[in-house]
Design a protein that fits this description.
The chain is an alpha/beta fold. It has a single domain (3-158), classed as Cytidine Deaminase, domain 2, CATH 3.40.140.10. 25% of the residues lie in helices and 42% in strands. It contains three helices and nine strands; from the N terminus they run βαββββαβαβββ. It has helices at residues 8-21, 63-76, 99-110; strands at residues 3-7, 27-34, 40-46, 53-54, 59-60, 82-91, 120-127, 130-142, 147-158.
């Protein structure tokens, strides 16, 4: 099983946002790099943005704000930190991907501007005091697009 590495302060920031908005969904963006061994390393997360809309079973990020922040992160990292995928919560639910999550992840992989053939989706499920997180990575279409394949990654944190 492959692993997803996430910097502990980024993970804490994600958890704080999940607790803050509970029982509504929230989410954001994962940024970092792909290590030489092919494992993704999340160094920083972005939250939903100031104009995001949070609902019980869906949320809409402030896409314009997120894109501006992604550009800033890319520039200040000397073009090393890039978009790796998205994260969001399923309050009182499961960390497994819904049909919409699967469609979204596939759409990211096929979106040429994302320049990312294997995007990540990190999903947190639970309650304000108890969350379970599961990382998913798109691994491509099989059988002419009828069977979409996803890998579940082991989540590991690290401190700098």
């Amino acid at each position: 099983m492959s692993q997803l590495w996430i910097e502990s302060s980024a993970f804490d920031e994600m958890l704080d946002e999940a607790v803050r908005v509970y029982p509504l969904e929230t989410g954001g963006v994962l940024t970092g790099y792909i290590a030489e061994n092919g494992e993704p390393v999340v160094q920083q997360i972005l939250g939903p943005g100031p104009s995001a809309q949070h609902k019980r079973h869906r949320f809409h990020p402030d896409h314009v704000w997120q894109c501006r922040r992604l550009d800033e992160i890319f520039e200040t990292s000397s073009e090393r930190a890039v978009y790796l995928g998205d994260w969001h919560t399923h309050p009182d639910g499961s960390p497994r991907m819904s049909w919409l999550d699967r469609r979204t992840l596939r759409g990211i992989a096929l979106h040429s501007e994302a320049e990312l053939s294997q995007p990540l989706m990190l999903i947190g499920a639970g309650r304000a005091e108890n969350w379970t997180w599961q990382a998913h990575r798109y691994s491509g279409d099989r059988m002419a697009g009828f069977d979409i394949s996803f890998d579940v990654l082991e989540l590991r944190s690290f401190s700098v």
